[in-house]
Amino acid sequence: MKNLYFLFVSSLLLIGCGTAVSVKRAGAKQTPIAKAQEVSVYLMKDSIPKGSIFIGSVNVGDSGLTNVYACDYQSVLVDAQVQAAKMGGNMLQVTEVKMPTTFGSNCYRIKTNVYRNENLVAQQVNGDSKRVDHFSNKRYLGDNVDCAYITFYRGKGSYSADSEKVFDGMGNDVATIKSNDYYSYQIKDYGMHRYIADTRGRVWTELQVEKGYEYFMRIKVQNTGTSIFTRLAIMPVDIAEQEIEIIKEYNRSKKK
Q1: Which residue has the higher pLDDT, 196 or 246?
Q2: What is the pTM of this model?
Q3: Which DSSP string corresponds to 16-78?
């Protein structure tokens, strides 16, 4: 098989504070991409450009010793981008997402496919490429919207029996979110705001609110082994929408 081979790398584990990364290569060997940030990230809903060649897959998960601050969604995507660049891929498509759980893994776990598109490689060399990413933290709602929205949500797998309350910086109760649920909160007082999830949240999360935008904040229930506490994280729009769709699908399946 001329210039074609299949090379399987069975589990490259990054032990300690890092994530667990599994890499599988397929097809002809490719020249590595110099910078991991040049790897475009596509979500499940995205279409891969024509002319792209599948060159393998990268899965990122929990090593069992992973620091929870090293395995949020953005961090595991960056880990996948680094491996994709080493493989010679300039496109990464997320095919599966597992969200953190209270009594399980505190990490995001993802499966991805890696592709190479020579046209995009040439554009990158010439400095003409526009990398695809999904890290915008706000969504524009239109000129006619005279308010802002903050959507709070709590992911599938948060098995704590208690509902989590969200409070603002004035101590007002703005939302009560149970497991596998979400709530959109309307706001017309723009500027810097502070929010905390329950009195166990411990850490305030600040958000700069602008008129005409929607923001997403995820309630993360963490189990440290000795205690359970909650945190709020500002999420990229596309990631939040993907997770909320998972929540909707879970709730639809329970009604059947």
Answers
A1: 196
A2: 0.66
A3: SSS-EEEEEE-SS--PPPS-GGGSEEE-TTSPPPTT-EEEEEEEEE--SS--GGG-SHHHHHH
